[in-house]
Amino acid sequence: MTTAPQTAAIDVSSLSFEKAVEELEAIVSALERGDVALDRSIEIYERGEALKKHCEALLSAAENRIEKIRLDRAGKPLGVEPLDGE
């Protein structure tokens, strides 16, 4: 029987996007294999939900920082403006 990913007491909010996705992928893999005890499955599923929400929040924050380049008629950059035009 394969062991489930370790979900140590590392606070989800302190993880980088990449680390959170890595841990989330390990959880999904363990749950898909189906070789984790029910209690442990519930525990890592809940951790996975927290990781998913954290990743979504990080992605949303990144999207809010994206700027689009304004170009003049010749295609030369004039500057930047927020993606949503605010």
TrEMBL record:
Keywords: Cytoplasm, Exonuclease, Hydrolase, Nuclease. InterPro entries: Exonuc_VII_S (IPR003761), Exonuc_VII_ssu_sf (IPR037004). One of its GO terms (molecular function) is exodeoxyribonuclease VII activity. Its EC number is 3.1.11.6. The keyword Aminoacyl-tRNA synthetase does not apply. It catalyses: Exonucleolytic cleavage in either 5'- to 3'- or 3'- to 5'-direction to yield nucleoside 5'-phosphates. It is found in: Cytoplasm. Pfam families: Exonuc_VII_S. The keyword Nuclease applies. It comes from the Bacteria. Its main location: cytoplasm. Belongs to the XseB family. Heterooligomer composed of large and small subunits. Bidirectionally degrades single-stranded DNA into large acid-insoluble oligonucleotides, which are then degraded further into small acid-soluble oligonucleotides. NCBIfam families: PRK00977.1-3, xseB. This is Exodeoxyribonuclease 7 small subunit. It comes from Rhizobium herbae. The gene is xseB.
